[in-house]
Design brief:
The protein is an all-beta fold and about 300 residues long. Helix content is about 0%, strand content about 45%.
Length: about 300
């Protein structure tokens, strides 16, 4: 876990393997420890085995495991301390995934780097299964909101400056939101961003393991993708290939986990749905919840 204080100091704690805490060590820490480098951070985002952050002057740094070049510093060598992301870009957001990292620059360009096992995750418009060790420009003519990108296990989504959601990567379960495929049961994979179905204007979105959810500019909540545990919150276990509305108004923020999701309402209440294994959605009775419940 990592966070940034009001004084712009970055701290991490938890499992230290691969140097993901950024304090010059691979030891675990039970308390917050300062990230090395005496830098002022605006934000920090933790992935599976690496962490990335943006300094107050917009520079990107990553640390931890560096398999497939996920740190973006043109190397495969891991780092116990923050290493500068190559390219000199000024970032508005960085999102560290499982084996891929993506970032939005302050001028609206999207860059991704790291692994691309299925040849489409980086969104470069070509077979990129070899991966990239430096930030590589996402294909297409979209301009993106600087803080809008979200990296799932094998798909990525973002919001454009026109408030439209776009996704790319592996399309299984319908999590790209582009419709039901070619009519033969085949869900399309995308090598470049494509607009999500429904002509919805989005203010925010997030990717889970195999689902995607977003909040529209008028406060409605939508989800799509895998729904085996009710993580889409539409009252069913049916996968959805395009956005389905689950909350009519007053939704402000959505977050997705592996098989569960949360929506924060503008009155401060928190709604949860999906699998409550180990009470992960904060309800006192285990099981699956197919529609939003107040935590």
């Amino acid at each position: 876990t990592c966070g940034v204080t009001v004084d712009n100091d970055a701290y991490c704690w938890g499992r230290g393997r691969y140097g993901r805490l950024g304090n010059g060590s691979s030891e675990n820490s039970m308390v917050p420890t300062a990230v090395s480098g005496d830098m002022s951070f605006e934000s920090v985002n933790s992935g599976f085995a690496h962490t990335c952050g943006i300094t107050t002057d917009g520079n990107g740094f990553c640390w931890g495991r560096n398999e497939d070049g996920i740190l973006g510093n043109n190397s495969s060598q891991g780092s116990l301390v923050p290493a500068p992301v190559s390219g000199g870009h000024k970032f508005g957001s960085l999102n560290a995934g499982s084996a891929t990292t993506c970032g939005m620059t302050t001028n609206g360009d999207a860059y991704c780097w790291g692994a691309s096992d299925f040849g489409n995750l980086l969104g470069l418009g070509e077979d990129d299964r070899a991966g990239k060790k430096v930030p590589s420009l996402v294909a297409g003519e979209f301009d993106f909101q600087p803080d809008s990108i979200s990296v799932g296990l094998d798909h990525i989504c973002a919001v454009t400056t026109a408030d439209k959601a776009v996704c790319w990567g592996r399309g299984r379960y319908g999590k790209l939101g582009i419709g039901p495929g070619n009519g033969l049961g085949v869900i399309e994979n995308l090598m470049r961003p494509r607009e999500v179905k429904g002509n919805i204007s989005f203010a925010q979105l997030t990717t889970g393991l195999f689902q995607t959810c977003g909040i529209s500019t008028d406060g409605k909540a939508y989800c799509w993708g895998r729904n085996g545990s009710g993580q889409l919150g539409d009252g069913t276990n049916t996968n959805r290939h395009a956005p389905v509305k689950i909350i009519d108004e007053n939704a402000t923020v959505v977050a997705c986990g592996n098989d569960h999701s949360f929506v924060l309402m503008n009155d401060g209440s928190l709604l949860a749905f999906g699998h409550n294994n180990n009470y992960r959605i904060g309800l006192s009775v285990g099981g699956e919840y197919l529609s939003p419940q107040i935590v």
